[in-house]
Design goal:
This protein is α+β, with helices and mostly antiparallel strands. It has helices at residues 2-28, 41-61, 66-94, 132-135, 160-170, and strands at 31-33, 101-108, 114-117, 141-149, 155-158. It has 2 domains: 2-94, no CATH class; 101-182, no CATH class. A hairpin with a 5-residue loop joins strand 2 and strand 3 (114-117). The chain is elongated.
Length: 191
């Protein structure tokens, strides 16, 4: 019977650690997916189902009541599947051989703010809420975004420079990002 208690305690520790990871990681992570990686979701669901079934099987072999084993298994499976999302983001980054590259994006004032790539073949990004920071840029402003296409083929971008500039703006300091390109020479207004 003490073996069953040890298993339950171990599962509880794993569960709490995974929940803490899912809460803390988004606050510390400086890279995010450019769009939801929809093809990742079936993999995460399968991971959660396998973990859930394995947990139920282990607990039932240790003579845990069926209802309790099922509930613990489902909770652990959901948690493992959900924790796979930030883990995939980190693995995509860590296994990427090319690293971050800077690309120019046009800022479209929408809700949320949309970054449209100037160069073709890059993903559109709609991550930031429309605020006074973005409003100050006006139409056709440009911003440099650091992107990577990681080992799993998912695009992700580094938010560090942008978040730092937003905080600078919120403190009343002059922002560094968001430049409106000069009009071509032929389009200059006539005196």
């Amino acid at each position: 019977m003490s073996n069953l208690k040890q298993m339950k305690a171990g599962i509880a520790v794993v569960f709490v650690a995974l929940v803490a990871y899912m809460v803390v990681d988004p606050m510390l992570s400086r890279e995010v997916f450019t769009t939801e990686p929809k093809r990742l979701f079936p993999v995460l669901a399968l991971l959660g189902i396998v973990a859930s079934a394995l947990c139920v099987w282990i607990l039932r072999r240790a003579e845990s009541p069926a209802g309790e084993a099922t509930m613990v298994g489902v909770m652990l499976g959901l948690t493992i599947g959900a924790a796979g999302y930030p883990t995939a983001l980190h693995l995509n980054r860590l296994l990427d051989g090319a690293g971050l590259k800077s690309y120019e994006y046009r800022v479209v004032l929408a809700e949320p703010v949309v970054f449209e790539p100037v160069e073709s073949g890059l993903p559109k990004i709609d991550y930031f809420k429309r605020t006074a920071y973005w409003e100050r840029m006006g139409s056709d402003a440009r911003i440099t975004v650091k992107l990577r296409r990681g080992a799993f083929g998912f695009w992700q971008f580094n938010i560090d420079d942008i978040v730092t500039d937003i905080r600078r703006f919120q403190r009343g300091e002059k922002p560094q990002l968001g430049v409106t390109p000069p009009a071509p020479a032929g389009d200059a207004p006539k005196p």
